[in-house]
Amino acid sequence: MTDSTTGEPEPQAQPQPETGRRSHAGRRNFMRKVFLASGATAVATMGGAGAWAAMADDATGSVDATASASPSGGAGGGPGGGAGGAMPTEGITEEFFGLTTDGKRIEDLYTIHSQKVATAPVTAAAQAFLAGLSDSEKSDAQFAIHSTEWRLWSNTDAYSRQGVSIADLSDEKNALGEALLKAALSAQGLETTQLTRKINKAACEAINSTQYAEAYYWTIMGTPSATEPWGFQFDGHHLVVNYFVLGDQVVMSPCFWGCEPTSMEIDGTKTEVMQEEIEAALAVVNSLDSTQQSTAILKSEKDNDEITAGAFTDNAVVEYKGILATRLTAAQRKLLFTLIDRFVGKAKDDVAKVQMAEIRKHLAETYFAWMGGTAAESAFYCRIQSPVIWIEVDCQSPFAFGSLYGETNGGAPTQQHLHCVVRTPNGNDYGKELLRRHLETSPHHH
C-alpha cells in the first residue's frame, strides 16, 4: 500500500528486504509480475522510475523491453516523497545527464586536477571493509565503477536495495563499515548518520516495524585505489551518501539527509538530529528585509512535498528562483554560507574546503528560495541553487511515525519530518563528469 500524499510505501506492507544481487533479482522479478498482472500504471504507482529501474536485467543496469514503458523527461516525484509531489518522469533507462536549469549543461565546471585532499584514509578504510567481508558478501557489495547501481538509491524504508545490509553483518564487519564512514565524513557528518539511524531504529521498534530498523546497505563501486576511480554508497531510510574518489579529488553527492521524527525521547534521553540545519535555514530567511523576502519567498504556504531533485530525478530541470546571493548584505551572506556549510561540511574538512571555495566562485549565480512560514516552529521548504551546488530542505507531513510526536499521519507538514537533498549540478553527481574525463584521457582505458 502507498500513502497517496507522499508516494511512500507503508512499512507494514512489504517483506523484509533481501541483500545484494539477490535483492536486485527479487525486486526485478516482483515488479515484472506486477507489470504482467496489472500493467504499466500499477508499476508506476508503486514507485515511478524506481519501479522501472527495478526491472533492470542485472546489477549493472541493462534494461529489458518491459522498461520501455517508462516515461522520460524532466523533474518529477519519487518514492518516499523524496523527489517531488508526483511520480518521477525520468528513469535510469535514460542516460545520466545531470541536474540543470534549462536542460543544457554548463561545460568545463569540473576538471581533473590536484585538490590536495587526503584520500588515503578513506581508501584504506574501504579496502579494510571489503577485506573483512566473506566472498559472498563481497560479491553482493561490489559493483563496477560505471554501474547504474549508483543511481538506484532511495530514501524510503521499504525500498529493496542492493549490497550488504548492516542488519546482516557481524559486529566486527559493521565496525569496519563505521570506520569507512568516519574516514569519509566530518565529525558532524558522522554524528548525523549515527543519530538518524538511532532514531529510525527506535521509531521502528516503537510502532512494531522492526524489519526496517536497520535497513541500511553498503555498496562499493570499483576497487578502492590511490589512482583509479572508485566510490561507495551508503543507502537507507532517510540517509543516503554517494561518495566518489579519483586520486585526491572527492565528490560527495547525491546525498539525502533527513529523519522522522527529528526529535525523540530514547531511553529517557531527548535525541535530536538536523536541528542546526533547520535553525540555520530560518536564520537566513528571517534576516531578510521585506523587500528581499518578497523576492525570496515563492509562497507563504507549502505542500507536503516540495522536493524536486530527490531519488530517481538525476536529470531534473529546475529553473533558478528566489533571491540572488549578491543582493544580500555581508551579514546575510554569512548566514547563507553557514547553512550551506551544515551540508557541505558533512564531508571531511579538506573536501568541504574545496567545495566551499567552488561555491564562493559562483556567488553571483547563487539563489536562495523559500516556501512556507518563517516562525521558529513553521514548516518550510528552502533551496540553494547555483551551477555547482544544490541543497533542498523540506519539512514534510507526518508519515509512519506521527503518533510518536503527537501528530496524525498524513497531516500538515512539520519540522519533525525532514527531507534534505544535496547534489552537484551540471553533470557531476556521482563524480560522473570526473569519471568521463578520466576514461577519455587514461591510456589504459583505450
UniProtKB/TrEMBL annotation:
The chain crosses the membrane at residues 34-55. Residues 1-29, 63-90 are annotated as: Disordered. The keyword Transmembrane applies. Residues 73-85 have a biased composition (Gly residues). Residues 8-18, 63-72 have a biased composition (Low complexity). PROSITE patterns: TAT (PS51318). Keywords: Membrane, Transmembrane, Transmembrane helix. The keyword Amino-acid biosynthesis does not apply. InterPro entries: DUF3500, TAT_signal. It comes from the Bacteria. This is DUF3500 domain-containing protein. The lineage of its organism: Bacteria, Bacillati, Actinomycetota, Actinomycetes, Kitasatosporales.
